[in-house]
């Protein structure tokens, strides 16, 4: 009984910081064949949006990334094995994944946003996926490891993890409709206290509204 | 009676420790995935954004019981609905 109470308190204390927006939740439709939701090619954009020590030439950013496709059946088989509650999955939990692209870089000279961005365009996607596997709730998985040294703060951030998303996104013209996802984003930021922000949303660049 | 007191002390200590550790963990790093289920259905949430101590997720629900919505499943699980990430 004590164990259950502790677990309940633990669960409550974590979930108080969780949020979803209406545009980002949906009921899964199983094995819906949806080739129109698969882009012919994908673009991959990684951005280091905020870096207090951007103007310091000793600051650097090192990133390794791999982009995979995980077929729907393999994804949900993995999900059955996944622990209930919060977890940080690794790529090894997704057998049957297909590597779409990978890369690695280390950069110095990070003064401008352009210098803190990298893009890989034209990554073959649809043709890499067997026709029968082009279903709506398959997943794209981005695995990454990063190291960011901020010379102004004199701190180094290390992190590795995986972002998961579906091959589709909300249509720009009608948020209730799905459209093929064309770009995979990986965005990071270093806060003034040295902590790291992570996101798979398009980066909110200076000049855009933010709070 | 002594056993009950010990249990209460243990529970208090465990609660304080758990609150402290989990609060620090939640602020330090959001989990990439959150899987679960409740009386209304099951859910699979994946992290889309972490900023300002908040963890923002994209979620899909499965096996939602008739008469309920994915929103019911996620609200029951403790997720707060927001229009969009605030940062």
Would you mind describing this structure in some detail?
- The complex is a heterodimer of chains A (211) and B (87).
- Chain A is built from two helices and twelve strands; from the N terminus they run H-E-E-E-H-E-E-E-E-E-E-E-E-E.
- Chain A is mostly beta strands and 211 residues long.
- Chain A has one domain.
- In chain A, the strands form three sheets. In chain A, strands 6-2-11-12 form a four-stranded mixed sheet, with no helix packed on it.
- Chain A is globular and about 50 Å long.
- The relative contact order of chain A is 0.24.
- Chain B is of the alpha+beta class and 87 residues long.
- Helices cover 39% and strands 32% of the residues of chain B.
- Chain B contains two helices and four strands; from the N terminus they run αβββαβ.
- A three-stranded antiparallel sheet of chain B has the order 1-2-3.
- In chain B, a hairpin with a 2-residue loop joins strand 1 (33-38) and strand 2 (41-51).
- The longest helix of chain B has 27 residues, at 2-28.
- Chain B is elongated.
- The termini of chain B are far apart.
- The model of chain B is unreliable at 13-27 (pLDDT under 50).
- Strand 1 (18-27) of chain A pairs parallel with strand 3 (54-62) of chain B.
Q: In terms of topology, how is this protein built?
A:
The complex is a heterodimer of chains A (211) and B (87).
Chain A: H1 2-15, E1 18-27, E2 41-50, E3 60-70, H2 72-81, E4 85-87, E5 98-108, E6 117-124, E7 139-150, E8 155-165, E9 168-170, E10 178-180, E11 183-190, E12 196-199
Parallel strand pairs in A: 2-11
Antiparallel strand pairs in A: 2-6, 3-5, 3-7, 7-8, 9-10, 11-12
Chain B: H1 2-28, E1 33-38, E2 41-51, E3 54-62, H2 70-76, E4 80-81
Antiparallel strand pairs in B: 1-2, 2-3
